[in-house]
């Protein structure tokens, strides 16, 4: 009878007093002071390691031979890079990215400022200016102006 009485008391204490004998994974038993935490700050590089040799806001076009109004125009093709090109049977699109990271998506015969997207090739987009000359931009950000394409 004494055995059952002790068993019931131990069972009562374990169930109703929330005493658990589970492992505590939050503390290390092998260290001398487990209450201190060490914070590590990761050093951030000064430049973007994914940008390559160029900076994030620089373009490889030489803008010294451009007219001043071309440099001031926000919708100038010289302010954008060709980021993507999708060509299909019925619709074709290009994506252009400016220095601040804004993306513009154009379909065929839409305007970017004063120039109109008229054709796509596998690696380049062709725009027509108002004076019927063409500007061709490729993925290397090379822009060339021609009379025909």
How would you describe the overall organization of this protein?
The protein has 149 residues and is of the alpha+beta class. It has one domain. 13% of the residues lie in helices and 28% in strands. It is built from two helices and eight strands. The protein has helices at residues 2-16, 68-72, and strands at 80-87, 92-98, 103-107, 111-112, 115-120, 124-128, 134-138, 143-146. A five-stranded antiparallel β-sheet has the order 4-5-6-7-8, with no helix packed on it. A three-stranded antiparallel β-sheet has the order 1-2-3, with no helix packed on it. Strand 4 (111-112) and strand 5 form a beta hairpin. The longest helix has 15 residues, at 2-16. The radius of gyration is 33 Å and the shape is elongated. Mean pLDDT is 77; it is low at 55-60.
